Each structure stands twice: as structure tokens, then as C-alpha cells.
Q: What sequence folds into this?
């Protein structure tokens, strides 16, 4: 479609409020946005298929129709493309039969050539068409069988099924991670717009025209991009499905834990969708300031390793004795939460100058990609700085001074074996780690702790936004404990809960003082005065 | 039949494809001091006073369209000539470009002077290769004669014309789709606003004008604007090139003043109906509502009269139908056409035109049922005003009006199905092995 | 960690079945097309080497450079470059689409979308003579369907098919823009209702009949080896400098002052007891307006209305006073407007119009 679609303007907290008339009732709505968002802000949901707040508006599904009073009488307009103007008069299905009928008609057209395979469709339960059907459609079918269906499909994939009906391609291998069902596609072109405008790599395109339109890559090429799984998120129907999640779980059986992806310092907001004590998929969680609604494949598929190669829990007394005498270097990795750091600070308080605190990662920092990755694999680098941790490169220079190395979620040997070789000079190496990684293997004592997906905590991302992690109940071993729990016990004052640890963190970092978990919104809290 | 002033078709059959012949016939006389001493504003005002309305179908006043173009923005202003003529029954641009390409070039120079255009594009549909050849030949001659290129006739004015060959898409006749196509994209209409006059091709102000509109300009400039305005109706000036096709003795292109009675066009210009009695007339191309013989007897060919009869003037393409035809067959043609030409953008048009076509096919194949017509009418209700461009209504309108005015034809076809009265089978959709 | 037997029912509680699945994604089943058979046969594509041999020629390069110089953005030349590919092969092979995309600097997927959107690009080889019959409303009225049936019978193929000797492909297409000659047809790129001597013709008033179709077929057979070849883009135009700023273009942008500055138009003066009221039509680019009044043989400035003003009142104005207005647009002063002689204002009923 046209290259020149513009991004929608979304309302913010600072949007000017203007008065418009919805169904003859005056309401105050954000004035600098489109009608669809404005109506949403006052609680009126408008069904839509092609509109996506973080994609350019193409306005082709025609589902979000409302009536607007204009100089030439009441006209149907699409809410997603109509800007809010003060005093405009809008009519929704609540008062206008014409809008109701128009939406119903559009819904009917959308389903004319759409297969009725909801029972075996992976999108069922979170399908926009299903939702809109309940909202706007509910038509009884008026089609005779002899009118037939004209399934959308690539001519290269079309086949004739057992009933003699021409069908489009089913589970077409679109790329290494995405499968396509051509028949289910409703030509909303969200994926096209995503690949073109967000991923900046136009690999998908709607080919053909009229009711022979089908979605395709260039013939012979595969959809392959760091963000290609996002097309399965934006797909309103079950046309694009992720191979890793296909037929794994019905979506209504999944529980959702909102948390933060701790593999990048942007801290992409995610949902961990879990059931039966394991994570089934990771979905981006909308945060306008951070990752909008995008998530890289790396962050999304990382969950597949969360329950593999784990370290077992150990008796606490073993560590206590292993600490021994001599100087202790504590190294906290990027996946450590503020709570873990508060516990480490407390350890330093209790043991005095014997303990020195370091943090960071030996991995290279790359450039931000402008979508959902900052390029810095040390997720909580800002938090480490805030809590007064020296960089780990400092430790490498002074490795000889220490007798004990305590690494917490910091796989130094795995990240850069050559640089970490200096640390082998430290005789006693204790690794607190979720995984049996290189550092754990090289350690004199490896102690299993909970993974970041299983703990509650906070992190500060590279935009200086304090974000909250929630514990997903998928810990493979009930014996495992969170890092802050273990370290605080080591320090002699065991935290009762994560919130107590967070409160303690306020004593070490003034910007955190006075905050509690309840005051951090789901989209995080921008820290004032702190360094980004 | 009164002798009519020929504005666009005066050089037909005179070999005006050659620049020397065209100049002998008075061509390029406008590209002179008179034009060069006119300011842009004066020229636009001049065209506004001539009451020229766009000849592509929508009938928007040309001078007003030009006056919307913002000036002094620093962006180039483009003129795109819409030669993507493809609506059933319309064939005037084909012959205008074949017979008199230099008039189009001359008109474009005038339009470019009014708008400050540096580069204009003639978007010609792909099937018209002979027209493109004729235009390119004329362009080569015009460049050689110094009417195009840098510093035309010693002025500071520079102007180039390029011919862009389309590749077969009726929807590119819609101006924003045409711009998309010119930009090398799929010809799908854009959301409006912004209108092309403000932000069109490559986000610059763009005027999209029909071939005939541009070709009227040389005559208007060499005469007084009031003289042109006088020829038409109060709200639309000038003459119009009518295309008459279908069941008439002499189908073809005829130039006549606006407001000519329809029967004069059919009987005097086109030689009368042949093969039977007059059944219906489509006054403005295939997408308009038909007029029955009684209505045609009182209709005049202008924007207002036809609008008052709930049809439209469109591009002035009259299709005359005699009583040997069943209207359902013709509607099936339209279903074929519009479902094939839908750009596939808006849901109602993409899926709806195809569905209507399948239902029409069923009726024509003798498989129609009672209630099919009502279903089609109801489906067309879902087209009204909900899509980006009016293509869906171009099929929805005829389905509604044909079935209202010629219901007997539909019933005749439906009666051919022995089971037409059987209720719809509430068969549950049972797909094959693979869903 | 719990160890479960994969795939087995673990327990049943609260009417909810609980399964434990293998964690590996389920492999896709084979494409149903392989089971049932595809509708369309794959089109054999030329090899990339063969394709580049035909496309990387000096003539094609010169054409592409000419096309790219015509548009401000390379992508705009996509349709024309695809035409060049079709001109070489008679159809657009897939790698040809990629080649065109590279020439125009756009994504191959975009070019594929474009190439499949427009119906005149053939995606499979066609016969030597592509016979396209119009089936739209005007031609149908005049009997297109019987001509098409006759053509199918003559060539012994159905619409969309190619004759076994590779000579003819028969297509039904939508309106070809020659309804006055309906029914009519396109033979490759030539409109035809008849063949006379060595040429296909479409004279005004002629229509395609069974006899004339026979003559056209005869013409085709006669020209099997010496087919008249059209340039796909209708020939090159020489002398243009391209679009300003485009690669290879020599053209410079339009200068702003090519035309004389805009004067004030439609100046009208009407006098009543408050003086003379001037109305006029102004251009949006005006920066200054001066009203002058004739005093003997000299013009004296009497006021400077704002450029957005609609009217100006000269309190001293009387009937038969002569006024003119001079507009300035930026640096440039336009010629004075036409002189307006003040008239008596008519009855106040018309005052609203002003």
C-alpha cells in the first residue's frame, strides 16, 4: 500500500482536553489524537482490524466507522483516520442505526471469504474478528453454499480440496519462525506496515488485487528478521502464527505475568504467558516509552532456555563457610534486580571494607536498534550505577587483591573467557547463578538461585525508568531462592520480602527512597535526577 | 442538429499529429507573448471565469482546483494528466490523444504556466500503446521546436512532459491511486485528506486533470472565457466530448454543448437506435444508474439534470441499450469488471464486489433463487460511503438501480431455476480434510 | 524438576484435562497441495545468468538511465522498468522483478506486489500473438461473447489458454477504451477490428465481425515471422532534461519569477454616503496592497489595505472617481490593476453580496 501513511497521534497525559459530542452527550476527550483513541479514552471501544496504535494508519478495514456531522449532513467516517476537532458531533452505534448497520455489513464482508475454522485456529480466543463479531456482527449467515467462497491464496499454493473447493495455502512456511495461513488473512496489511515502517525491511507485501489478494514474501525468499515474530502479534487473525507456539496451548488457558525482559538494558516490557508451571510464550507488553508493543526475537525466545541447564539449590551453610577470610569481591550481573543489589550493599555494611562491590558484564555494547533493544546486554546497568557498584573491568585489573569472588547472575567466564582468566587467580570462587553456566562450572562453589522470570523486583533501564518485575510461578525447584534472599541472609538480616528489600534500597539510593511497589505503574516510573 | 463549435475535436481527421500541420491549423498560437505576459493568478482567474469543469467524471471546477494549490511552498507543483481511461463506454481520451496529441501538449504548457509546474506527467493506461507512441512522437517534435525544455521561447520558463505507461488497473483513474501508481506503487487510492492539490505525488502539490480538460485550454485561451462559459449550462461551461456506444447506428465520439437533449445525441448525432427499441441509456459510463426510455426522452446531457434524475453525467459516455438485451447480462458484465478491478484495499469492496459477482453469475447461470435480488440490494447497502474510493458504489449503484428499474429481467432469469422458490439450505459448513 | 511422561494425561480435576506436551514445536504437516495437487502448474523461470545476459545490455541501461532521470524518486520508474523486462521476455520472470527492483532501488517484495497488482504484466510466457477481447458492457451489447466463442472455436482453445504451436493466447479483458468500435480486440499492442493489406486497422465505425476476425487471423499467420515490433514504452523522447535533482538529470528547478507578478483583479468601486468602497480579488502571495486614486493626471495613493482585507473604504470617494490598485508580492511590484470607475451603490438589498 502507499508508502505515505502517517503514524497515528496518540494521546498522552498532557493532551489538551477538548469537548466533543458523542451521541449528543458532551464529553471531554484528548484533543490531539484520532477519534478512535479519543473514544477509547472515554471508555467507548470502537472495533477495528487494521488500525494499530504503533503502526501507520492505512484505514482499509473500514470496521471503525462512526458517523460525523459535517457540512453535508451526517457522513460515515473511519474513526482511526479522523482527527479530533473541538465541538465535533459523533454518533456511535449506541444512537445511530446507520453506524450499527454499516459495521455489521463490513463485518459480514470480512467474513465472506474467511474460513470458519476457529476451533482449530491458534488465534481463537484473541482474534480480532471474533471480538468484532461479538461487538458488531452477530449476523446469521445469508450466504447460499452455491455462492461459494473465494479463499485468498497464492496461486502457487492453491489446491482443490476433497469437496472440490479451491483453497489457499495452509501453513505456508513463511520463514524460520513464522507460518502463514493464506486463507485466514484479511488483508489488513498490518504486517506489511510493520515490516516496512518499523522493521525497515520490506519483506512482506500484499500481492495481487481484489479478492485474489494474498500476503507473500518475494517468491523464494523467507521472512527473516530480528523482529519477525512481531508480525504474529500484530496479525489480527490466525494468518501469521509463530512456529514455537503453534498448537502448544489454547490462549484462554494461559495466565499472564507482566514483567521485564532482563537481557537488554532497554528492559522491554513483556508478558510471560504460562500454564501448568511453565512458560508457553512471551508477548510484548505495551509501554509507549520503552518498547511500544515490539519485542525482539532474542528476548521473546529466550524463555525456551529458562528451565534448562539449571543449578540445583544448596544448603545455605555451605556458602557461609565458603566465604572464609580475606577480601571478597561481589560481582552482580545485569540480570540482578535492585533488591539483589540492596542485599549486596547490606553485605558490605555488615562485613565492612572486606567486601567490594562490582557489577556489569563483559559483553560488548552495541548500537540501539530503535525498536525494542538498546544493544546493552547488561540489563540493569543503570541500577548498578545508581546503587554505587563499580564496573567489573575494575575488578579485572585488581583481581590479585581478592581471596573470594562471589558472582551473582554474572557469567563472566561465559561472556569473555580471555578477559575473565585473570579472575582464576582468586582462590575461592562462589557462583550464585540460575544456570549451570561457564562461571558456575569454573566456580569452587556453585549455588542455584531463582531466574529473573521467577522473582519479584525492580530494574532501572537505560532511559532511567524504574520498572517492576513480577514473579512468574514457573520455578522448576521449590528449593530455589531469590538472590536477594540468600545474600541478605549472608549479611545476617534476611529480607522478609522483595518489597522490604526495595525499601532497603531506598536507603542506599536517594531517588528510590519513598517509593514502593505500589507507586510504580505498570509502565514504570521515570526517576528524577538520576543518571541515565 | 445545430452546428457546434469544436473545442477539442476540431483537428480530427486532419493529420494534426504532425506539428507542422497542427501549427497550420492554428496550433501553438497560444504559446506567445500573450501567455508570457499573464501572471499565474490572472491565468487561473481566466480559467475560473470560463467555468470549465473537470471532464474526468467528477466535474470539479478546474480553475478552483488550481486555486487550491499552495504557492511559494518551495516544493515543485506537478500536473498529472489522467489518461487512464477505462470505464466501460468511455473512449474519448483514446481518440483525442491519437488524433490531436499536440493540443494536449499545448494545453499542458498553459496549465503549467498557471501552476508553475516544472515537470508534468501524462499517465496513460497501458493498453493505449498507440496513443503513447503518438504522444511521444509529438513530444519529440515539440522539444525540437522549442516548445518544451529549458527557457521556452526565450522566457525563464522551463517545462518538461513525460509519458508514464500504466499497466492495467482501472482504479488508477482515481486521482490518488493514479499518483500512487505514478510513484511506482500499487494503484490503491489514498486516504483523504490531504488532497493531492496540497500533498500529492511525492508529497508535493499535484493537480490531476483529465485529458479533455487540458485539451480545452488552448481554445479557451485563444477566445474569451465568457465565450466558453456561454456554450454550456450556467454551472458548467463549454462543450463536451460525448462517447456514444452500444446499440446505435453510428457509435463514436461527438462534441456537443453541455445541455444537449439526450435524444438529440442518440438520434441526430449517433443516427438512432438499431436492433430494436430503446430500452435504457447509461448516460455517464458503466457505473451510473440507467435511464429508462421514458426518462431518456426528457433528459438533457449536463451535470444538474442527470443528478436530479438520480444518475450522473460522469464522463459523458452514453451507452445505449435496446430491448433485445436482458439487463442482468449487462449487470453481470459490470460485476465481472468491478470485481476484477477492485484494488483490494477496503474490505467491503474487496470481498463484496466478488460476492456480488458470484451471486450474479448464479442468476445468469439459471441458478438464481428468490431473495437473491434482495440480498444483493442489502449487500450494496453496505457499500454506501464506507470505502476510500467510490469503486464499490460503482457496482453497488447499478445493482440497486438495475434491480429497481428492470426487476422483470431479474425475475425472468430466476424463474429459469426450477428450484428457485426453495428455502435456503441451512447446511452447516463442512470442510474437507484440511481446514 | 518434575518428570512427566510426555503426551499422557496427567490428572483430571475440575473437569479440566491437563496435558503435558513436548516442548519442541510441532512440525508442520506437508503442504496440502502436495496431497491434493496444486491448481496451477509452476512456471519454469529462466536462470539468473540467462536473464542478466538479456537485461544487462547497453540499450536497456540507457533506457533505465533515461527513466530514472524522469522521476524524483527511483521507485517511480518501477512500472516502466518492469515494462522493459516484459519487452525483452514477453513476460516478467521473477528474477526480472528483482532486477527491476534493484534498478529502482526498492524492495523486491514491493516490486512483486506491484507486478502482480497490474494485470498487464504477464507472469507466464504467452503466445506470439496475444489476442485480447474486450468483454465489457459496450462490447457485450454489440455481441462480444459470440465473437469470443467464434475465436475459441477457430483456435480450438479456451480463454486463457495458448495454442499448442505457441502462436496465439486468447484472453478476455475489461474495457479497452474503444467502445465505439465494439466488439473489438487487441492483437499484442494494436487495436484491431479488421486487417487490410499489411496492417491491422480500427477505422471509426467498424466493428469486429467473424469475417474480419478471419482476416485478422490470416494477417497473424502471414506475420508470424515478421511481427511488427512496438517499443514497450512507445519510443524515447529526446531533449528533456529529466526531473530536477534526479540521477542523470540536467534540468534545473523552475525559477519563482518566470511569470509576471500577480496584479489585483476585479477591482470594483461603489460609492454611497460613507464614501467609495473598493472590492477586489487578491492572490494569496500578495505582501502589500496600495490603493491609488486619480487626481487630475496623477495617481495619488489613498491607502494601504491589508492583504487579507476584503474591502477598502475611501471616505472621500464619490461617484466617477477613478481608482486602481497596485499589488506587491515579495520584491516584485505588479502592474496596476484595471482602472475602476466608481459607480453609485445600488439598493441596499444587494449589500449582502459584498
A:
Amino acid at each position: 500500500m502507499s508508502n505515505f501513511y502517517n503514524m497515528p497521534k496518540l494521546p498522552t497525559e498532557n493532551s489538551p482536553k477538548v469537548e466533543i459530542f458523542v451521541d449528543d452527550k458532551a464529553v471531554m476527550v484528548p484533543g490531539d489524537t484520532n477519534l478512535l483513541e479519543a473514544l477509547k479514552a472515554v471508555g467507548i471501544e470502537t472495533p477495528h482490524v487494521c488500525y494499530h496504535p504503533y503502526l501507520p494508519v492505512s484505514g482499509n478495514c473500514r470496521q471503525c466507522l462512526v458517523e460525523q456531522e459535517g457540512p453535508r449532513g451526517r457522513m460515515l467516517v473511519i474513526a482511526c483516520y479522523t482527527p479530533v476537532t473541538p465541538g465535533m458531533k459523533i454518533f456511535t452505534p449506541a444512537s445511530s442505526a446507520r453506524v450499527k448497520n454499516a459495521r455489521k455489513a463490513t463485518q459480514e464482508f470480512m467474513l465472506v471469504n474467511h474460513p470458519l475454522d476457529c476451533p482449530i485456529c491458534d488465534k481463537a480466543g484473541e482474534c480480532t474478528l471474533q471480538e468484532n463479531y461479538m461487538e458488531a456482527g452477530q449476523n446469521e449467515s445469508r450466504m447460499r453454499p452455491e455462492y461459494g467462497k473465494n479463499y485468498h491464496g497464492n496461486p502457487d499454493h492453491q489446491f482443490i480440496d476433497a469437496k472440490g473447493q479451491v483453497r489457499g495455502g495452509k501453513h505456508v512456511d513463511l520463514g524460520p519462525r513464522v507460518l502463514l495461513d493464506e486463507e485466514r488473512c484479511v488483508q489488513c496489511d498490518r504486517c506489511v506496515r510493520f515490516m516496512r515502517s518499523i522493521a525497515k525491511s520490506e519483506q512482506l507485501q500484499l500481492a495481487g488485487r481484489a479478492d485474489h489478494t494474498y500476503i507473500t514474501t518475494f517468491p523464494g525468499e523467507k521472512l527473516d528478521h530480528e523482529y519477525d515474530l512481531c508480525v504474529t502479534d500484530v496479525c489480527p487473525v490466525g494468518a501469521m502464527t509463530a512456529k514455537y507456539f503453534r498448537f502448544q496451548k489454547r490462549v484462554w488457558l494461559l495466565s499472564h505475568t507482566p514483567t521485564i525482559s532482563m537481557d537488554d538494558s532497554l528492559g522491554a516490557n513483556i508478558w510471560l504467558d504460562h500454564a501448568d508451571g511453565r512458560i508457553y510464550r512471551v508477548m510484548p507488553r505495551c509501554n509507549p516509552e520503552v518498547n511500544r508493543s515490539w519485542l525482539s526475537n532474542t528476548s521473546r525466545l529466550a524463555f525456551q532456555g529458562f528451565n534448562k541447564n539449571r543449578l540445583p539449590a544448596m544448603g545455605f551453610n555451605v556458602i557461609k563457610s565458603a566465604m572464609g577470610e580475606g577480601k571478597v569481591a561481589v560481582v552482580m550481573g545485569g540480570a540482578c534486580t535492585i533488591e539483589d543489589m540492596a542485599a549486596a550493599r547490606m553485605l558490605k555494611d555488615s562485613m565492612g571494607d572486606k567486601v567490594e562491590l562490582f557489577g556489569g558484564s563483559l559483553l560488548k555494547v552495541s548500537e540501539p536498534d530503535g525498536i525494542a533493544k538498546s544493544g546493552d546486554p547488561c540489563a540493569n546497568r543503570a541500577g548498578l550505577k545508581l546503587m554505587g557498584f563499580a564496573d567489573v573491568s575494575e575488578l579485572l585489573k585488581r583481581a590479585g587483591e581478592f581471596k573470594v569472588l562471589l558472582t551473582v547472575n554474572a557469567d563472566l567466564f561465559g561472556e569473555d573467557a580471555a578477559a575473565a582468566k585473570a579472575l582464576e587467580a582468586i582462590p575461592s570462587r562462589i557462583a550464585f547463578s540460575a544456570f549451570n553456566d561457564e562461571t558456575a562450572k569454573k566456580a569452587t562453589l556453585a549455588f542455584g538461585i531463582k531466574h529473573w522470570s521467577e522473582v519479584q523486583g525492580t530494574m532501572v533501564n537505560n532511559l532511567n525508568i524504574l520498572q517492576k518485575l513480577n514473579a512468574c510461578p514457573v520455578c522448576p525447584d521449590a528449593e530455589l531462592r531469590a538472590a536477594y534472599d540468600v545474600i541478605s541472609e549472608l549479611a545476617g538480616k534476611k529480607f522478609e520480602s522483595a518489597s522490604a528489600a526495595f525499601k532497603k534500597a531506598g536507603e542506599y539510593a536517594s531517588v528510590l527512597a519513598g517509593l514502593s511497589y505500589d507507586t510504580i505503574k505498570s509502565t514504570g516510573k521515570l526517576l528524577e535526577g538520576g543518571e541515565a | 442538429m445545430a452546428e457546434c463549435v469544436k473545442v477539442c475535436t476540431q483537428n480530427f481527421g486532419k493529420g494534426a499529429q504532425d506539428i507542422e500541420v497542427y501549427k497550420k491549423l492554428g496550433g501553438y498560437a497560444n504559446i506567445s507573448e500573450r501567455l508570457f505576459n499573464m501572471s499565474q493568478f490572472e491565468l487561473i482567474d481566466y480559467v475560473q471565469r470560463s467555468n470549465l469543469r473537470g471532464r474526468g467524471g467528477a466535474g470539479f471546477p478546474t480553475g478552483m482546483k488550481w486555486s487550491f494549490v499552495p504557492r511559494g511552498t518551495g516544493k515543485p507543483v506537478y500536473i498529472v494528466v489522467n489518461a487512464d481511461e477505462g470505464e466501460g463506454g468511455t473512449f474519448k481520451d483514446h481518440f483525442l490523444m491519437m488524433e490531436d496529441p499536440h493540443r494536449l501538449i499545448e494545453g499542458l504548457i498553459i496549465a503549467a504556466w498557471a501552476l508553475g509546474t516544472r515537470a508534468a506527467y501524462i499517465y496513460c493506461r497501458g493498453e493505449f500503446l498507440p496513443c503513447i507512441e503518438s504522444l511521444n512522437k509529438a513530444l519529440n517534435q515539440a522539444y525540437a521546436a522549442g516548445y518544451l525544455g529549458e527557457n521556452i521561447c526565450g522566457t525563464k520558463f522551463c517545462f518538461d512532459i513525460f509519458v508514464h505507461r500504466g499497466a492495467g488497473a482501472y482504479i488508477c483513474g482515481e486521482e490518488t491511486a493514479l499518483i500512487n501508481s505514478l510513484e511506482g506503487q500499487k494503484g490503491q487510492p489514498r486516504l483523504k485528506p490531504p488532497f493531492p492539490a496540497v500533498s500529492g505525488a511525492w508529497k508535493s502539490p499535484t493537480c490531476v486533470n483529465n485529458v479533455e480538460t487540458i485539451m480545452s485550454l488552448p481554445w479557451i485561451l485563444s477566445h474569451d472565457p465568457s465565450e466558453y462559459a456561454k456554450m454550456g449550462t450556467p454551472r458548467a461551461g463549454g462543450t463536451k466530448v460525448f462517447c456514444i456506444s452500444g446499440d446505435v447506428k453510428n457509435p463514436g465520439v461527438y462534441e456537443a454543448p453541455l445541455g444537449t437533449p439526450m435524444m438529440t445525441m442518440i438520434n441526430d448525432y449517433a443516427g438512432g437506435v438499431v436492433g430494436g427499441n430503446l430500452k435504457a441509456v447509461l448516460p455517464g459510463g458503466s457505473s451510473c444508474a440507467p435511464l429508462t426510455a421514458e426518462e431518456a426522452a426528457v433528459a438533457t446531457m449536463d451535470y444538474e439534470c442527470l443528478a436530479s434524475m438520480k444518475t450522473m453525467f460522469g464522463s459523458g459516455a452514453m451507452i445505449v441499450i435496446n430491448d433485445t438485451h436482458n439487463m442482468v447480462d449487462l449487470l453481470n458484465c459490470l460485476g465481472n469488471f468491478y470485481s476484477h478491478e477492485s484494488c483490494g484495499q477496503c474490505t467491503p469492496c474487496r470481498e463484496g464486489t466478488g460476492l456480488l459477482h458470484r451471486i450474479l453469475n448464479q442468476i445468469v447461470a439459471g441458478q438464481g433463487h428468490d431473495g437473491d435480488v434482495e440480498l444483493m440490494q442489502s449487500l450494496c447497502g453496505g457499500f454506501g460511503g464506507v470505502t476510500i474510493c467510490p469503486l464499490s458504489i460503482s457496482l453497488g449503484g447499478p445493482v440497486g438501480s438495475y434491480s429497481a428499474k428492470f426487476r422483470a429481467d431479474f425475475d425472468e432469469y430466476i424463474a429459469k431455476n426450477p428450484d428457485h422458490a426453495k428455502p435456503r439450505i441451512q447446511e452447516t459448513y463442512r470442510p474437507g480434510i484440511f481446514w | 524438576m518434575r518428570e512427566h511422561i510426555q503426551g499422557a494425561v496427567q490428572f483430571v480435576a475440575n473437569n479440566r484435562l491437563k496435558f503435558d506436551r513436548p516442548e519442541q514445536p510441532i512440525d508442520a504437516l506437508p503442504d496440502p497441495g502436495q496431497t491434493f495437487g496444486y491448481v496451477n502448474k509452476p512456471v519454469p523461470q529462466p536462470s539468473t545468468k540467462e536473464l542478466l545476459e538479456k537485461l544487462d545490455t547497453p540499450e536497456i541501461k540507457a533506457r533505465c538511465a533515461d527513466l530514472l532521470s524522469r522521476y524524483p524518486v527511483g521507485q517511480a520508474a518501477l512500472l516502466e522498468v518492469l515494462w522493459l523486462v516484459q519487452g525483452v521476455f514477453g513476460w516478467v520472470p521473477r528474477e526480472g522483478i528483482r532486477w527491476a527492483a534493484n534498478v529502482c532501488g526498492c524492495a523486491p517484495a514491493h516490486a512483486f506486489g506491484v507486478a502482480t497488482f497490474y494485470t498487464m504484466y504477464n507472469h507466464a510466457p504467452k503466445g506470439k500473438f496475444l489476442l485480447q477481447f474486450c468483454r465489457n458492457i459496450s462490447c457485450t451489447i454489440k455481441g462480444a461473447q459470440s465473437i469470443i466463442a467464434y475465436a475459441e472455436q477457430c483456435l480450438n482453445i479456451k480463454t486463457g489458454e495458448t495454442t499448442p504451436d505457441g502462436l496465439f493466447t486468447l484472453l478476455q479483458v475489461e474495457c479497452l477504451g474503444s467502445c465505439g468500435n465494439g466488439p473489438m480486440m487487441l492483437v499484442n499492442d494494436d487495436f484491431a477490428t479488421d486487417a487490410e493489406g499489411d496492417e491491422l486497422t480500427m477505422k471509426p465505425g467498424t466493428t469486429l465481425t467473424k469475417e474480419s476476425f478471419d482476416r485478422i487471423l490470416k494477417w497473424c499467420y502471414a506475420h508470424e515471422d515478421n511481427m511488427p515490433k512496438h517499443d514497450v514504452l512507445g519510443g524515447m523522447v529526446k531533449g528533456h532534461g529529466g526531473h530536477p535533482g534526479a540521477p542523470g538529470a540536467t534540468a534545473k528547478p523552475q525559477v519563482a519569477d518566470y511569470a509576471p507578478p500577480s496584479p489585483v483583479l476585479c477591482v470594483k468601486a461603489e460609492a454611497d454616503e460613507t464614501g467609495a468602497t473598493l472590492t477586489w480579488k487578491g492572490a494569496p502571495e500578495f505582501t502589500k496592497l496600495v490603493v491609488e486614486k486619480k487626481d487630475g493626471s496623477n495617481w495619488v495613493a489613498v491607502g494601504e489595505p491589508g492583504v487579507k482585507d476584503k474591502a477598502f473604504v475611501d471616505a472621500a470617494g464619490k461617484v466617477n472617481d477613478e481608482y486602481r490598485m497596485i499589488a506587491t508580492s515579495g520584491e516584485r511590484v505588479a502592474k496596476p490593476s484595471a482602472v475602476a470607475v466608481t459607480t453609485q451603490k445600488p439598493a441596499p438589498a444587494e449589500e449582502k453580496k459584498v
In short: Chain A touches chain B through 54 residues (CB under 8 Å). Chain A has three domains: 17-111, 152-247, 316-526. The mean pLDDT of chain A is 91. The longest strand of chain A covers residues 269-275.
